[in-house]
Amino acid sequence: MNILEKIIARKRTEILESKKEKSFADLEKGIYFSKSTISLAKALKAATTPQIISEFKRKSPSKGIINDQVRPEFVTKDYVAAGAVGLSVLTDQDFFGGSFDDFLQAREANPGIPMLRKDFIVDEYQLFEAKSIGADVILLIAACLTPSEVADLSRKAHELGLDVLLEVHNQQELEETIGDHIDIVGVNNRNLKTFETSIETSIALSEQIPDSFVKISESGLKDADTIVRLFQHGYKGFLIGETFMKTVNPGTALADLQKNLAQHSNLNSLIL
């Protein structure tokens, strides 16, 4: 059993336990359930420069503890101040050290920015959970869902007013799961079975994703050169977590990257 299979097996057990504690009706009573969502897809579609979706992540199965000395409300406020187009907050406890509390603290601190619930969604119940904690976007990972599951979950997410980010790793996943209720296609440069990363994955798939979908690249993004290169291949957004979180001040790390991106933009203007 690889790490992804272990995560999904644990997630299904976790969902069964959660359903015993809170019903769908209980989730619908959450303070954020009736709030209007903020579309990340629209924000990215309108962008004319590379946009960063900044992630709050305490640990990962491949890296272990990344940063457990910072608080989500402070880090995410710094991300927003540094120009993040959206926020991603991990809610998986066992493998990534995340929690609903992390998400809620970030949500309360940043009411006006799109927020992604970063987790392994395999059940409709989790969509209601996401809505109840104030998420605007949910993640569907093609590698752990069947095409019919992606279709059903994305349709239900849209009924709840949530944007849908579909994550793929190869052309087969893309072709089998792309559909009408997908808003954003994210290409994960990390192989979830080996955890090796290569941005060539994003480059190879860039031409295969229809222009009607917003494209973002995920994992292995560390510098402005890489981001600009991928932007030239049609990627509007770049989801970055570990690169920022492994520093003492993740918000400052984002601000520094933004400066480097601006310098690239200025150089391109001079060349043109």
TrEMBL record:
Residues 4-255 form the Indole-3-glycerol phosphate synthase domain. Its EC number is 4.1.1.48. It comes from the Bacteria. GO terms for molecular function: indole-3-glycerol-phosphate synthase activity. It holds the Pfam family IGPS. Pathway: Amino-acid biosynthesis; L-tryptophan biosynthesis; L-tryptophan from chorismate: step 4/5. Belongs to the TrpC family. PANTHER family: INDOLE-3-GLYCEROL-PHOSPHATE SYNTHASE, TRYPTOPHAN BIOSYNTHESIS PROTEIN. HAMAP family: IGPS_B. This is Indole-3-glycerol phosphate synthase. The lineage of its organism: Bacteria, Pseudomonadati, Bacteroidota, Cytophagia, Cytophagales.
